[in-house]
Specification:
single chain; about 400 residues; alpha/beta; Rossmann fold; Arc Repressor Mutant, subunit A; 3 domains; 9-stranded mixed β-sheet; two-stranded antiparallel sheet; DrpA_SLOG; DNA protecting protein DprA; DprA
Length: about 400
């Protein structure tokens, strides 16, 4: 694969490709990468500026001499990187960056500054563009949870929905096997051992038959880490059009942590099996997840259903909202909430941004602006998408101009 200069800058700065154990220069963390992007954007430059060997430019970007030396070492290993990428490709593993056209678009759109700049994958990357559901749950799920998982995924497969998963034991593996057996496909975000996993006969067969795509944000040889396993949860949720939690412990474990993280960040609709025996499930529903049981309603309709629109616009002295009832499927899926008329949005956006203060939760914003919660959520999401405000830990606040 041929990489653009910007893509190569991401690989050189952010990956361990071509780095030996003895190398002292460590790649950028995600935070350092975001700071770098902020710097080059402020200077109206491209990330590829680091490839020019213009050390004066790095000084103008306000990097210290030690930081400049580190960057020089990272970008000087181009030959080693090219060799290793070619070696990985021969093994069936490809590299993709957020600057590449085939990078999973929903990750960039939803995760924003949490988007991993580099991904490794094995399989057809186009599977990550398909509409699908995330299915998550405990490793030690009981028989009832297993049966519900199979029924849910079988139904999703009938609707030609892809399953997004994490490749772990329990609910993850049951959902993946069920999807493939029923003619669907799986996109599995794994936290370790990509190189080892693709050597398994069944895995390789499914990859070659374009039924399985494995994606990882860590070097293919990396071993298991609990922290990395927790970190990849956000990718599963962000890539899907709706997430289904089958079973969760209460206030512990990866399933609970991932579900809570999604509720706070609102990456995708979150459905939780309304099963009274699972205490974690009930608590997630109490925190805002949607209770779910199998019914006659199609899963596709559930994940794309628009929320009720509201006419409560007292603070702006408006009496009606204009709803854009577009039939365009892309917009229908992209905006899971009702899309408010551009004219009305233009009226309210500056007022909200100017009065949001140091930060408000959805409930606080609804109360302060005297707007129904559903309507408020729609506007806050639009403001986040337009990068007027940011959402962190369930608090909406004005974007810093520093």
């Amino acid at each position: 694969m041929k990489f653009s200069d910007n893509a190569m800058s991401a690989i050189l700065l952010c990956s361990y490709i071509g780095i030996n154990k003895d190398d002292t220069a460590k790649p950028f963390s995600l935070g350092e990468w975001n700071q770098f992007l902020d710097k080059v954007i402020d200077m109206k430059l491209d990330p590829s500026v680091v490839l020019s060997n213009d050390m004066g430019m790095l000084t103008r970007l306000k990097y210290s001499s030690n930081e400049i030396e580190r960057i020089k070492k990272l970008v000087s290993r181009g030959g080693a990187v090219a060799f290793e990428i070619d070696d990985l490709s021969n093994k069936g593993i490809e590299v993709i960056t957020l600057f590449d056209a085939d990078y999973p678009v929903l990750l960039k759109r939803k995760l924003k500054r949490k988007t991993p700049p580099i991904l490794f994958y094995a399989g057809d990357i186009n599977l990550a563009k398909k509409i699908g559901i995330a299915v998550v749950g405990s490793r030690d799920v009981d028989q009832a949870g297993m049966e519900f998982t199979r029924k849910l995924v079988s139904r999703a497969s009938e609707e030609r929905l892809v399953v997004y998963s994490g490749g772990a034991k329990g609910v993850d593996s049951i959902s993946e096997i069920t999807a493939i057996e029923n003619g669907s496909a799986v996109v599995s975000f794994i936290a370790d051992s990509l190189s080892a996993k693709i050597k398994k006969k069944e895995v390789l067969k499914n990859i070659l038959q374009q039924k399985l795509l494995l994606i990882s944000d860590v070097k293919p040889e990396a071993g298991f880490s609990a922290a990395r396993a927790m970190n990849r949860n956000k990718y599963i949720y962000a890539a899907a059009y709706g997430a289904f939690v089958i079973s969760s412990d209460y206030n512990k474990g990866g399933t609970w942590a991932g579900a809570i993280e999604n509720i706070k960040n609102d990456w995708t609709k979150e459905f939780v099996w309304n099963h009274k025996e699972y205490n974690g499930n009930i608590k997630l529903i109490e925190k805002g997840a949607i209770p779910y049981e199998l019914s006659d309603e199609k899963i596709y309709d559930s994940i794309t259903k628009k929320e009720s629109s509201y006419n409560q616009l007292d603070i702006f002295n408006l009496t009606t909202t204009i709803v854009n009832e577009t039939s365009n499927e892309y917009k229908k899926i992209e905006n899971q909430n009702i899309v408010i008329s551009q004219d009305i949005y233009e009226v309210v956006k500056d007022y909200i941004v100017g009065n949001i203060g140091s930060g408000l939760s959805l409930e606080q914003a609804s109360e302060q602006f005297k707007v129904a919660k559903g309507q408020m959520k729609i506007w806050l999401k639009r403001l986040c998408d337009d990068e007027k405000i940011i959402l962190e830990n369930a608090i909406y606040s004005k974007k810093s101009t520093n």
